[in-house]
Amino acid sequence: MTIRTATALIDFKALDNNYRVTKSYAPNSKVLAVLKANAYGHGLELIAQALPQADAFGVARIDEAIALRHAGIKQPIVLLEGFFSSDELTLLSEYNLDTVIHNIEQLNALASANIKSLISVWLKIDTGMHRLGIAPDDVSSFTQILKRSKNVKRGIVFMSHLGCADDINNPSTTLQLQLFKQLTTSENKCSLANSAAICAWPDTHFDWVRPGLMLYGVSPMLAPNKAYKALQPVMTLKSGIISIRKIAKGNSVGYGAAWTSNKATYIAVIAIGYGDGYPRHAENGTPVYINGRIVSLVGRVSMDMITVDLGEQLIDKVGDEATLWGVNLPVEEVAKYATTIPYELLCNISRRVKISLINN
Ligand SMILES: *Cc1c(COP(=O)(O)O)cnc(C)c1O
Q1: Atom 15, ligand 1: which residue's CA is nearest?
Q2: Where are the alpha helices (DSSP H) in the chain?
Q3: Do the Cβ atoms of 86 and 111 come closer than 8 Å?
Q4: Most buried of 248, 252, 272, 314, CB within 10 angstroms?
Q5: For residues 239 and 272, is the Cβ–Cβ distance under 8 A?
Q6: If we measure between CA atoms, which residue out of 336, 324, 319, 240 comes closest to residue 283?
Q7: Angle between the 139-148 and 104-112 helix axes, to the nearest 10 degrees?
Q8: Positive or negative CA dihedral for 11, 12, 13, 19?
Q9: Cα dihedral across residues 256, 326, 195, 135: positive or negative
């Protein structure tokens, strides 16, 4: 296969490897695989179907959960932010979806709903991130109401989310963990760890871990750690060279003449741009992998094209493939040059990008 336009290769063997790496970090925990934002850009149904070994899935929107049921997914599916309006409770019951409860509005709506089947609840507690979750003081009253409700299945899962687990030197993870332990008992199932906590904070694993990024083969830690070596990128984003020209010293390239060459050199145009989800703010010098080496992005990213400096010796030709990230070029590296995080690059992949499956 020759790649001519923006194509995301999705490697199922890498996904399987990353699942096993996750289990090796947290062997005694069940795995809720996080598939929000179209499975971080990798394809929602595709990734769910490739993970029959996952104990449950987590999504952020009810439409994603329903799409998974329509795709034949049988595992529990948890709405990580719960339902947004009480009308959705009928759908939760109809599609057998589990919900997070993180505020009083959701609690009241669930308790007073008229639904046919019982719903499983993950009670989210704010242990210090101060985004979602009920206050520590409200845990016992919420728990009482949920336990008495005719609509709630037995066995509430207590959960919280960590704000700084990617930084091993940040003391707030330990504080959040201590508070979480004080508020929960071994009577109930507990869940705290995202990818970073799975890799770096073993005391946070509890009954359920919730990996997202690491399943896709990207290291969740700020500083390089051993997860870098064990994880394999699931997505490799490629496209083809559509033009090569020689420019003279002092010539500028692209919109705004934002880059000027200080030498005579060869410039390649690659068929990918911000219309595909390649970051428009990628700086001059952003790495691109072509024919066994790293070359530099030069000039502004256009909607459908980028330009790279191939150097003074021409070894490449029109039609050759370029890798924008993935195998041979970690998305973590590219994210740094675009002043963003790998999460954003992955989930911004646009519909125009072809998906091509390997090792499936
Ligand atoms: C997104 C999310 C995760 C997964 O986070 P990663 O950093 O991608 O592992 C886990 N738990 C919750 C509640 C989330 O929203």
Answers
A1: 80
A2: 12-25, 36-40, 44-49, 62-70, 88-94, 104-112, 139-148, 172-183, 195-200, 227-230, 331-337, 342-347
A3: no
A4: 272
A5: yes
A6: 336
A7: 10
A8: positive
A9: positive
* Ligand 1 centroid distance, CA of 191 (Å): 11
Query: Which range, of 190-194, 221-225, 260-264, 316-320, averages the lowest pLDDT?
Result: 221-225
* Structural domains for the chain: 12-218 (3.20.20.10), 235-358 (2.40.37.10)
Q: pLDDT tens digits, residue range 31-79?
A: 999 999 999 999 999 999 999 999 999 999 999 999 999 999 999 999 9
Q: Closest Cα to atom 4, ligand 1: which residue? A: 212
Q: Which residue minimizes the CA distance to atom 6 of ligand 1?
A: 212
Q: Which residue in this structure is represented by tokens 């990353």? A: 18
SS3 at position 139: helix
Q: Which residue among 34, 61, 216 has the greatest number of ligand 1 atoms within 8 angstroms of its CB, and so is best to mutate?
A: 34
Ligand 1 neighbourhood includes 220 CB (under 6 angstroms): yes
Cα–Cα distance, 149 to 212 (Å, whole number): 32
C-beta 161 within 6 A of ligand 1: yes
Tokens of 303: 């909607």
Strands 252-253 and 259-260: antiparallel
CA distance 338 to 280: 8
CB atoms within 10 A of CB 60: 14
Residue by residue, DSSP assigns 269-335 as EES--GGGT--TTPPTT-EEEETTEEEEE-S---SS-EEEEEESS----TT-EEEEEBTTB-HHHHH
pLDDT tens digits, 175-216? 999 999 999 988 899 999 999 999 999 999 999 999 999 999
272 burial type by CB count under 10 A (0-12 exposed, 13-18 middle, 19+ buried): buried
Other beta carbons within 10 Å of 314:
12
